[in-house]
UniProtKB/TrEMBL annotation:
Native source organism of the sequence: Streptomyces cathayae
Sorted UniProt keywords: Membrane, Transmembrane, Transmembrane helix
Protein name per Swiss-Prot or TrEMBL: DUF3311 domain-containing protein
InterPro entries: DUF3311 (IPR021741)
One Pfam family hit: DUF3311
Transmembrane parts of this sequence: 18-38, 50-72
Domain of life: Bacteria
Length: 88
């Protein structure tokens, strides 16, 4: 029985993947660290800091998620191109 040797596919850490991870982790860390925003001042349009800080993270999180997705797609295309170019 001859079988092709299995190659271990270890995850590759690239700078782009680090940026993707930071984009996805930043909102999580910023909102889980409640002590950094558990205060009322400064007030913005009559809204205490505690509330507007959290609401500010909604669009910021969306933009960071879209950025991470776009970078992930670019990384996948680059890996597919490199894999296809190496096989030729």
């Amino acid at each position: 029985m001859s079988q092709a040797p299995e190659t271990s596919r270890r995850p590759v850490v690239t700078p782009m993947r680090v940026v993707i991870a930071v984009c996805l982790l930043a909102p999580f860390v910023a909102l889980m660290w409640v002590g950094s925003y558990a205060k009322t001042d400064p007030v913005l349009i009559g809204i205490p800091f505690f509330y507007w800080y959290q609401m500010l993270w909604v669009p910021v999180s969306a933009l960071l998620t879209v950025t991470a997705y776009a970078l992930w797609r670019r990384d996948q295309r680059a890996r597919a191109a490199a894999k296809g170019g190496a096989q030729r």
